[in-house]
Amino acid sequence: MQLHPIAAESFAIIDREIGEHNFTPQEYAIVRRAIHSTADFDLKHLFCFENQAIATGIRAIQANTPVITDVRMVGVGIHRTLSQAGKSAPLCALDYPGEGTTRTAAGITHLLEMYPNGIFAIGNAPTALLAIVDAIERKMAAPALVIGVPVGFVAVEAAKEALAHTQVPQIRVTGRKGGSAIAAAIVNALVFLAAEKKTDERSGDGENR
User: For 14, phi and psi rounded to 5 degrees?
Assistant: First the structure.
C-alpha cells in the first residue's frame, strides 16, 4: 500500500517538527497519521496504548475482524483503506437501531451482541464508548480492540477514564480532544501496519527457504 506523494511529504514535515518522543515505531506510525489528519501536535502528549493494543489490532485486521464505528464519518474515512487491503466494509452504529441512551449507544449495543469480539472505533459519541465499557464489565463482549477517541465536553473524559479501567486492548486520546478524523487515522494506520507485517513475514519466509 503506497502513500500518496502529498501524504509522504506531510509525514516528512511531521518527522522534522515533532521533536523527541518515546513512541515505538508502530506507535509513532499511528500518532503521526493522527497528527497528519489534524495538524495538532498536542496529540503527541495525549495518546495511550494499552494491553498490547497494536499487536492485537494488527492480528484482528489481518483476520478481517469487523470494524465498527459510532458515526458515518469514521466509516467514510476508513472505507477506502479497508477496501484496498481486501477487508470488509466498516459497520456503523447508526445503521443498527436498538435500545440505548442515544442512537449511537443503541446501535453499538446491537452490534456488540452481533460482534462481541469486533474492533470498535469511537470518534464522537461518549455514550457509545460507555456502552462498550458496560458490555465488557458485564462480560457480554471482549473486543479485539477499542479505539476510544470521542471528542467534546460532556461525558467525554469520563467515558475515556471508564475505558482505561478495563483490561481490553485499547488506544485512547486523553482529555477532550479526539474526533472522527483521529479515529479513522488510527484504523488506517493499523491497516497499513498489518499490510507491512504481512509483507515482512513473506520476505522472512522466502529467506528461510
Answer: -60, -45
- Asked if residue 1 has pLDDT above 80, the reply is no
Cβ(46)–Cβ(175) under 8 Å?
A: yes
**Domain count of the fold of the chain:** 1
155 residue type, one letter: A
Please give the grid coordinates belonging to residue 21. Answer: 518522543
Within a 13 Å sphere around the CA of 124, how many CA atoms are in the beta-carbon half? 19
In the chain, count H helices and then E strands: 8, 6
**Does residue 172 form part of some domain?**
yes
Whether pLDDT at 206 is above 90: no
Q: pLDDT tens across 84-123, in order? A: 999 999 999 999 988 788 999 999 999 999 999 999 999 9
- First and final CA of the chain: distance in angstroms? 26
Catalytic residues: 36
- The contacts of residue 139 (CB under 8 Å, 6+ apart) are none
Give the domain extent around 74. Answer: 45-208
Tell me phi and psi for residue 49, to 5 degrees: -120, 120
Residue 150 CB-half CA count within 13 A: 28
- List the CATH number of the domain containing 173: 3.40.50.10230
- Evaluate whether residue 153 is within a structural domain: yes
Give the integer Cα–Cα distance in Å for 109 and 133: 10
Residue 164 identity: A
Report the length, in residues, of the chain.
209
Is 152 inside any structural domain?
Answer: yes
Amino acid at 96: Y
